[in-house]
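Design request, tokens follow.
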């Protein structure tokens, strides 16, 4: 059976690598992200369907699901890579945090909306696997002082995924969270020029963990938080 996998944030550094690894392993991939030329360039007839949309919009998700089912087939899995990081004001230093809502929308709302769009039909078919990209920051908030909005949004997304995993475990639908430390991306190298990127997590390494969790080899794993810390 061909695996049909939705990847959100597919045009980003991690999402594009996840897409590449899954295509290499024979998946058909629906690559979802904000509209962009980079997203469009990912098209592979019959194998990779790029779709630009607002991942927090239920109506846009409905249209996307209809196209995916029509052109690729019913999704059997999903990798929720959409998200991001932004610094923020410390709680004691400002009356308001301008990044708070942005982080919740980017890291939590996209996960919640994606799960609601995908999991219901997976439950009906009694088969599916969803992988959420979390963060080690959820386990080590003290290492992320000044980024409380990011930590809160990633922690909430992980808790949400694990709760839904408990709701769907008897239906054959699995949800798991991978918890990377720093991922070796161009933007992280630019923002942390003095760090040693050889200690970070290569996107391909993380993508291969994701591919395992999507596979039947991981059929007895659900509701887990998998640490992928590299050597940091």
């Amino acid at each position: 059976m061909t695996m049909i996998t939705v990847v959100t944030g597919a045009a980003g550094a991690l999402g594009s690598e996840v897409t590449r690894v899954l295509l290499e392993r024979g998946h058909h991939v629906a690559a979802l992200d904000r509209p962009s030329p980079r997203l469009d360039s990912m098209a592979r007839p019959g194998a990779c369907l790029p779709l630009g949309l607002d991942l927090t919009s239920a109506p846009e998700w409905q249209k996307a699901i209809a196209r995916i089912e029509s052109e690729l087939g019913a999704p059997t899995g999903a990798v929720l890579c959409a998200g991001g990081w932004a610094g923020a004001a410390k709680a004691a230093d400002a009356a308001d945090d301008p990044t708070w809502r942005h982080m919740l929308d980017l890291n939590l709302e996209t996960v919640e909306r994606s799960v609601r769009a995908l999991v219901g039909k997976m439950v009906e078919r009694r088969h599916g696997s969803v992988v959420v990209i979390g963060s080690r920051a959820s386990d080590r908030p003290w290492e992320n002082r000044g980024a409380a909005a990011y930590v809160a949004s990633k922690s909430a997304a992980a808790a949400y995924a694990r709760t839904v995993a408990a709701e769907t475990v008897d239906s054959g639908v699995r949800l798991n969270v991978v918890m990377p430390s720093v991922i070796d991306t161009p933007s992280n190298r630019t923002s942390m020029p003095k760090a040693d990127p050889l200690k970070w997590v290569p996107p391909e390494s993380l993508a291969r963990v994701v591919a395992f969790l999507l596979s039947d080899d991981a059929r007895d794993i659900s509701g887990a938080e998998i640490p992928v810390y590299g050597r940091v």
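Comment from the thread starter after seeing the answer: thanks! Strands lie at 4-8, 28-33, 48-52, 77-80, 128-133, 173-180, 225-228.
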